[in-house]
Amino acid sequence: MACAAAQETFRSLHRGNSPLLLPNAWDAGSAALIESLGASAIATTSAGVCWTHGHADGGTLPLEDLVSTAQAIARVVRVPLSVDMEAGYSNVPSAVAQLAARLADVGAVGINIEDGAQAPELLCQKIEAIRRLAGTEMFINARVDVFLRALTTGDAAVEEVCRRARRYQAAGCDGIFVPGLADLQSMAAISRSIAPQPLNVMLVPGLPAPEVLHRHGVRRLSAGSALAQAAMGQVSRLATQFLAGHAEAVSGAPSVGYGPMNALFRR
């Protein structure tokens, strides 16, 4: 079970003078490495976790794989852990709440849960069920997919995000996550609407610096699947060269040393 100190630490990280930076991990190894580089909290990327277990992102991951990944990460890191549970892997609110409770039992202090293509009413029911079962301590970050799915545009998109956010807040969420949001004025408008709850955005190309985001109301910046994709990009490049007979490209590539990496697990 996640300890009260970790839960309060995670909440306090959303109240700093700069956004909480979450470089999302996909397994215990990536989480331990990210923590060793100075991360104040660890979040998972659903895409990276799914790919690690041989599944496509988008609600296909077996629950046991999600829980075991969270448990493995919580075992090797000391900083707070938030787990992306996509849409909860079920349309039955009680089942979603039971999954959230299992994640709390293995050490997660927070979760991300999304509305996706489903009706906002369903996410409200899921949040309410999670709150009843997991209690007030778990940090529920409600993901609003209006921008990510281009459900509408411009001022109408901002208004729809705010409308959904108010419903999710009433249901019991602790923060609002709007992936795909990149316009500073829209961030400021949404942040004002959801205050005092924190606004979370996801890294996209061309996004302003964290201090600029903070001035426009952003309190949390997630890398999403960007690190996992970049890691796979490196594997793709180096494996291509290796298979072409250029083994020196792999042996000479920048890497984390075997010893330092192995030492992360000798605690």
Structural class: alpha/beta
* Spatial order of the strands forming the largest sheet: 1-8-7-6-5-4-3-2
Number of contiguous helices = 12
What Rg do the Cα atoms give? Answer: 19 Å
Strand content: 5-15%
* Low-pLDDT segments, ≥5 res: none
Describe it.
With 267 residues, the chain is an alpha/beta fold. The protein has helices at residues 4-12, 28-36, 46-52, 63-76, 93-105, 120-134, 154-171, 184-194, 210-215, 226-243, 247-251, 258-263, and strands at residues 20-22, 42-43, 81-84, 110-114, 139-143, 175-177, 199-202, 218-222. The chain has twelve helices and eight strands. Strands 1-8-7-6-5-4-3-2 form an eight-stranded parallel β-sheet, sandwiched between helices. The two termini are 20 Å apart.
Write the layout of secondary structure elements.
Blueprint: H1 4-12, E1 20-22, H2 28-36, E2 42-43, H3 46-52, H4 63-76, E3 81-84, H5 93-105, E4 110-114, H6 120-134, E5 139-143, H7 154-171, E6 175-177, H8 184-194, E7 199-202, H9 210-215, E8 218-222, H10 226-243, H11 247-251, H12 258-263
Helix pairs in contact: 2-4, 5-6, 6-7, 7-8
